Amino acid sequence: MSMGSLLKPKINATRLPRVPAAFFGIVLGVIGLGSSWRAASAIRAVPAGIGEALNLVGVAIWLVLVMLYAAKWIADRNAALAEAENSIQCCFIGLAGVATMLVSLALIPYSRVAAILIFAMGAIFTALFALWRTGVLWRGGRDPTTTTAVLFLPTVAGSFVTAIVAGALGYADWGQLAFGAGFFSWLAIESVLLNRLLTAPELAEPLRPTLGIQLAPPAVGSVAYLSVTDHMPDMLVHAMLGYAILQALLLLRMLPWIGKQPFAASYWAFTFGITALSTASLRMVARGDPGPVHMLAPILFVLGNIVVLTIAVGTVLLLARGKLLPAAAPAR
């Protein structure tokens, strides 16, 4: 062995934490709750610092996940490629771009330049990944049992979050284009997913928490619509909010069935939708909506906090017990 090879640093792939792309969903939940607190502090006497703290915690989690996920591609490329080629896990990779755009949203009050740069990176990654993955899906040959709500992530979640951040940065016209892409993708994919749920074999227990993603499109879409418009909340956003509430009630009814899968990080799938539901209702109140959202907003805000706090505590406990991350592959 040469002296150069001895001095050359090596990354031991077996010692790296196995961070799945799905873990970026944690960022969505934390920053989603931070956005909800920001919306609440604009109309209620709640501490604004809580929302800012949650947003900065979300940014810190994103930084850690980006480094660990990038390290996986460098040190164990085979594992990363296997995830990208998996018919279910691959869609979670789109969360990397979505989480990046939400980091931009969190940073807007602190540095507009940084926010724009980070948003551009996240939006470009999201668009390229959505085009790549959707192109693969359009080839057909997919096993219906692998069709789950994760299909929403590349195009629907990506487009709606693009609209939210574009609107927050003052680019509402561009955000409206992104909203359209997300809205019609949602309607198309929704029909495919409902057909699968109604006619194919029931979801395997490990996949059941992915149903939490069902709540996200109408809830996040409501926030996106409000972000790219400035008029009094109209029939469309009321309709989306109503459908989101229906989805939330259905998930509550199915919770015993979903809960047959022991708690895992996959339960973060519930958090982005429930926090967006809260944020949308609060923004509608701030916009002067005279309807029932005045009664619903406080309830949804409390519910969002309870859900995220419960899942966060469960995640910390799993981490402390060493059961949060997938087991490392055996050394060869």
UniProtKB/TrEMBL annotation:
TM spans (from-to): 21-41, 53-75, 87-108, 114-138, 150-171, 235-255, 267-286, 298-320
GO molecular function: monoatomic cation efflux transmembrane transporter activity
Subcellular location, record wording: Membrane
Location, primary (coarse class): membrane
Gene Ontology cellular-component terms listed: plasma membrane
The organism's place on the tree of life at top rank: Bacteria
InterPro entries, A to Z: SLAC1/Mae1/Ssu1/TehA (IPR004695), TehA (IPR039264), Tellurite_res_ion_channel (IPR052951), Voltage-dep_anion_channel_sf (IPR038665)
Pfam name, any one: SLAC1
Topology of the protein relative to the lipid bilayer: Multi-pass membrane protein
CDD domains hit by this protein: TDT_TehA
Keywords: Membrane, Transmembrane, Transmembrane helix
The protein's name: Dicarboxylate transporter/tellurite-resistance protein TehA
Species the sequence originates in: Rhizobium grahamii
